[in-house]
Write a structure and sequence with these properties.
Elements: H1 24-31, H2 34-44, E1 48-51, E2 54-57, H3 58-61, H4 65-70, H5 79-89, E3 92-93, H6 103-106, H7 109-130, E4 136-142, E5 150-156
Antiparallel strand pairs: 1-2, 3-5, 4-5
Length: 160
């Protein structure tokens, strides 16, 4: 028998404020509803848009049809300028994703590191599935691109 571990291990249950089942899958079944689960899936596998070769998280870019029509072309920009735009536009504060969460959970570095690694994993798969010929760098750290606290963002490493 061979066991293939999940990206998130059951040992994280020790960090959870509510105690329950011994396995994360059981915890989700007891404490997380279907609408909440589906919204989490949309965070892990987000809607992506591509404009003139640049790639953005749709909810971060917040374009409208009118804005899209007047959006400048990016093709004339340097690689560094394109990377700066993608890095800035795709930056997400991990703490701000959880408005209703308790301070104790928001201060738990172990949980946030696990969430950060999970997002990196799924966003990498998402970008690779949509753009198999493009190479992306998924960056995490503190106070990136004007966002406070632990932040995740991505940008292309080259532009063809």
């Amino acid at each position: 028998m061979e066991v293939f571990e999940s990206i998130v291990g059951d040992e994280l249950l020790a960090e959870f404020p509510k105690k329950g089942p011994r396995f994360l899958t059981g915890y989700a079944g007891h404490f997380v509803g279907l609408p909440e689960t589906l919204s989490v899936v949309s965070v892990l596998w987000p809607r992506i848009i591509e404009i003139d070769g640049l790639v953005f998280l749709d909810y971060q870019f917040q374009y409208t049809e009118t804005r899209f029509k007047v959006e400048p072309k990016y093709s004339h920009l340097s690689v560094e300028e394109k990377q700066h735009i993608e890095r800035l536009m795709n930056a997400c504060s991990l703490g701000q994703m959880f408005y209703g969460e308790s301070i104790e959970v928001l201060d738990d570095v172990t949980l946030f590191k696990a969430y950060e690694e999970t997002l990196k994993f799924f966003w990498s798969l998402r970008l690779q599935s949509l753009f198999p010929t493009k190479k992306f760098y998924i960056e995490t750290g503190n106070n990136i691109a004007g966002e406070e606290g632990m932040v995740i963002t991505f940008y292309q490493t080259s532009y063809e």
